[in-house]
Amino acid sequence: MFIDGQWLKCDNTFDVLNPATGEVLGQVADGDEHHATQAIEAAHRAFESWSRTTAHHRSSILYRAWQLMLERKGELAALMTAEQGKPLKAAANEVQYAADFLLWFAEEAKRAYGETIPSARPDQRFIVQHQAVGVVAAITPWNYPVSMLTRKLAPALAAGCTVILKPAEATPLCAIAVFKLLEEAGLPAGVVNLVTTSTPAPVGKVFCESPLVRKLTFTGSTAVGKMLSRDAAMQLKRVSMELGGHAPFIVFEDADPVHAAKGASLVKFLNTGQACICPNRIFVHKNVMPDFLQTLTSRIEKMRVGNGVTEGVAIGPLVDEKAVLKIDRQVNDARDKGAEVLCGGQRLTQGEFGDGYFYAPTVLARVDDSMLIYREETFGPIAPVISFDDDDDVIAMANDTHYGLAAYVYTKDLSRAFRAVEQLRFGIIGVNDINPTSAAAPFGGMKESGLGREGAREGLMEYMETKLAGYSV
Ligand code: NAP
User: Fold this and answer.
1) Ligand 1 pocket: which of 30, 197, 219 to mutate (most atoms <8 Å of CB)?
2) What is the pLDDT of residues 72-98, one digit of tens each?
3) 2-243+447-472 adopts what CATH topology?
4) Distance between the two ends of the chain, CA-based, in angstroms?
5) pLDDT for the residue 163
6) What is residue 101's three-state secondary structure?
7) Beta-carbon neighbour count of residue 99 at 10 Å?
8) Model confidence at 332, in pLDDT bands (50, 70, 90)?
9) What is the pTM of this model?
10) Which atom of ligand 1 approaches the CA of 227 most closely?
11) Which class does domain 247-431 fall in?
12) Per-residue confidence (pLDDT) for residue 79, from 0 to 100
């Protein structure tokens, strides 16, 4: 753990495993509520001086961190593949995406502009300024173990906040590597603090209950996000919640089904289907269904599954046994209720798959609303395909979920694209595009997919208070 500028060892440790091989990669300090309190106190002490540094100074440190991250791209990617499982190329892409946040917020730090507002009184001036919200507690997931950290740390530091971060139990080594880099970039003691733990609940409770923490930022499941929001509400702490998704992917009648199937095969199987923006319900117009299914299935049958370090592997392992059991349950339920398994459909256990958590990439046709997979977030390499024949019906089906993170639309008709974007209740929509994300663009969900936005200008404002001064002159 990294607290008040010191790397701390701990009597208690927990093992970090490689999900492709079951190999133990290392032991990490198993922190508890006392460490969380210690880290919050250190962040509180550091806040006074850090929040008074100039935006230019904070920017220069973030800029240095960006350079260091790019210099270490290969090293970080290799660590991520071992600890989290995604193929090396995808891991390198994630490191680039993570570095993008450091650069974006190094620049944005200098643009935290306020404003002057005309008053109705001749002797009065209104001036609005933005100031750091205070000590921030951050909790991050395992699926993007580097970029989910910088998406929170970079704007918080740019704003002048100090931070305590708890990474996921499955991926603390990536978090340690990021904190070493931040230390080297020149952050003063106490400005960033890392608490690793195998028992998140007591640490989360301290984050919510400490009066010194003014903001809680969380990325993870909707269930945990709701619980933390409820606890943080007792002190009306500010919260940002990046939660689960259940993305619709709509292929309209006029779309090119081959192009759309290619897009679906790429974005659905991203990170073995373990991304919050992965399509979870693929709606295809009945007239283009045969071509779509044929292209999708033939592309997926060619995807190589295996350890992400092996050249040519496109699909790595799932994170753990629980994840395998969840998707196996969804696939069996769909099969029992009449879905057709066009490829995959089972766990992989033979040979090199024996010690890891592998599942064959799967296409399910004839999925309907009676099936679990139609309602639950999947988080695995399963593409459920549903037929439709009316635009209004498909928009209603797409919106029929309590999630509202990402959605995708394929059409060549501009009016249809506009109508769909306006009617879909999702925070991020790709139109003939499978990667509508960037450090420069606001990322976040509607409904139970969360509160607030990360990245972009909005991402900085999440860590700032708005202060109005009315001057009598
Ligand atoms: P999770 O179980 O909610 O865990 C997320 C983080 O919360 C982990 O660090 C976890 O620690 C911690 N945690 C769990 N229970 C806690 C508690 N009682 N108090 C405090 N912290 C607690 O989610 P996950 O399975 O890691 O991540 C997958 C979910 O994240 C999916 O639903 C996905 O859609 C969502 N996600 C959303 C976004 C987005 O930007 N919207 C991005 C990525 C992922 P442990 O690891 O120790 O359990």
Assistant:
1) 219
2) 999 999 999 999 999 999 999 999 999
3) Aldehyde Dehydrogenase; Chain A, domain 1 (3.40.605)
4) 52
5) 99
6) helix
7) 25
8) very high
9) 0.98
10) 18
11) alpha beta
12) 98
